[in-house]
# Entry
Amino acid sequence: MTQMSHAEQMDIITKALTAAQAGDHQEELRLARQFPLSPHLAKAAKEIFGVKYLEGWDLSEAEAAYGKDWLDRENLR
# Structure
């Protein structure tokens, strides 16, 4: 699982908010993808948007919950 210090998290959040306020939504999304996506949200995104959507996201928590091959499997528990 990805470990970030509180200071690192706050730095990313600050930069993402600055990008959002400037209307740079690509940068805002790039920064947001650095945070681990929770397993239930990753699973829902896979079901709704497909595997390709999850490219670039930190999926470390979903891999810990579902196994490293979870994106390739049809059904999850």
